[in-house]
Amino acid sequence: MVIDPLVGDLARETEVLRGAGPLARIELMGAEAWTVTTHTEARSLLTDTRLVKDVRRWNLWQSGQINETWPLIGMVDSGRSMFTVDGAEHRRLRAKTAQAITPRRLEAGRPAIERITARLLDGMARRAPGEPVDLKAAFVQPLPMSVVCMLMGVDPELEPRLHELYEAFFSTTTPQDERLAVFRELDELYHDLVIQKTEAPGDDLTSALILADEGGEPLTAEEVRGNLEAMVAAGHETTVGLILCAVRALLTHPDQLKLVLGGELGWGAVIEETLRWESPSTHLLMRFATENIEVGDRIVREGEGVVMSYRAIGRDREQHGEDADSFDIRRGGGAPVRHLAFGHGPHICPGAALSRLEASIALPALFTRFPGMRLAVPADRIRNRPVLTQNELESLPVFLG
Ligand code: STR
Questions:
Q1: Would you state the pLDDT for residue 378?
Q2: Which residues of 56-130 form beta strands (DSSP E)?
Q3: d(CA 24, CA 48)
Q4: Is 313 in a helix, a strand, or coil?
Q5: To test the ligand 1 pocket, which listed residue (68, 78, 228) has its Cβ within 8 A of the most ligand atoms?
């Protein structure tokens, strides 16, 4: 099946993929690949060392069919970072980042995230009452970028430009010459930041990545830059998607919103169910087979690409039951829902705790400040942005109450 680059109907796409699984042939803007659509197969392939992230192992890359003219090239050829290497090198590139954003360490950052949240909410409260507000532009979009910039030591003055750059980076409709210019500008910006932090280290994760560990092999400037790029891109785009989808889910399931506001269930239940049901990362590109791999009655041939279709995986009926398509924060009777929205195995999202923390601050703050908030358009008029790999809404118009 052809994955729609414009993301016109995500519900239908997920349905078709699920029907075609566990392993299905897909076309991604001209490139053929496999996708994994079921929980069990995803778990096993995500720890299978015969699949690697190095784009040079891709047969379509080796043959030259895929090159920098491919609109999704930034998702598979983003330079050397923890996102693109495996094995011992991967552990070396990832260790410090993963250690820096554990739940315990992140607690120290909570007041700062609360401050940013309160500032954005104050801004919205000053709007004329009765006028619809785009919750995305006014609240959800700015928050994760401010947080990840603070974490990495990126000057807040760069945030507006970074928003523009990543909007073009992720959109499938960006003209390719413009996209390549965006890559260059981002590379330069982060290159400069690494130099600056090498000369004058600060109390941020970029500086920590530059400083050598005792006995350990220090990361090169290139590697620091790669990790920094990956962190800002991932920390921003995915968390915006998570918070937007959670707000929409609650506004369209008012009975469940009531359960949370009444204290019967925690915000954690909302966040985990949103991750499972919507999956901010809809299709994760890409892994490559270093030898033939049998999956059920199919064979992934050496050199072929494998995508993880996390939105379909979250709707797997075998894993989540016959009602996998309904949003239900009571699911599991209080036990945490076992989803794979943050992946699994060595590449499991190192920022998971940060995104959970951001959502667990933003959602209650928003709904307590504006308890009468409601959608300003029918739910079926809320569109996705043309971002093939992410579940990101175009806008979220609401009345604040
Ligand atoms: C964007 C561009 C870049 O410079 C580096 C990366 C690596 C990490 C990627 C990121 C990308 C795109 C969004 C991803 C992220 C890892 C997690 C995030 C794929 C390619 C998800 O959607 C899960």
A1: 97
A2: none
A3: 18
A4: helix
A5: 78
Main-chain phi, psi angles of 130, to 5 degrees: 90, -15
- Mutation pick for ligand 1 pocket among 28, 83, 222, 309 (CB with most ligand atoms within 8 Å): 83
Q: Which of 396, 346, 362, 359 is nearest to 272 (CA)?
A: 359
Strand partners, 375: 398
* Nearest alpha carbon, ligand 1 atom 6: 230
Q: Is the CB of residue 117 less than 8 Å from the CB of residue 361?
A: yes
Residue type, 122: D
| Atom of ligand 1 lying closest to residue 231 CA | 8
In Å, how far from its chain's centre is CA 359?
A: 13
Q: Please report which confidence band the pLDDT of residue 336 belongs to, taking 50, 70 and 90 as the band edges.
A: confident
Q: How far is the CA of 233 from the centre of ligand 1 (A)?
A: 6
**What is the widest separation between alpha-carbon atoms in the chain?**
61
The overall pTM is greater than 0.70 = yes
> What is the tens place of the pLDDT at every residue in 264-293?
999 999 999 999 999 999 999 999 999 999
**284 Cβ below 6 A of ligand 1:** yes
| Residue 336 DSSP class | P
Of the candidates 188, 102, 113, 105, the one whose C-alpha atom is nearest the C-alpha of residue 149 is 113
CB neighbours of 38 closer than 8 A, spacing ≥ 6? 21, 22, 312, 313, 316, 318, 319
Annotate 74-105 with b (16+ C-beta within 10 A) or e (fewer).
Answer: bbbbbbbbbbbbbeeebebbbebbeebbeeee
Q: Which tokens is 177 given?
A: 């010459």
> What are the angstrom distances between the C-alpha of 171 and each of 136, 139, 176?
16, 21, 11
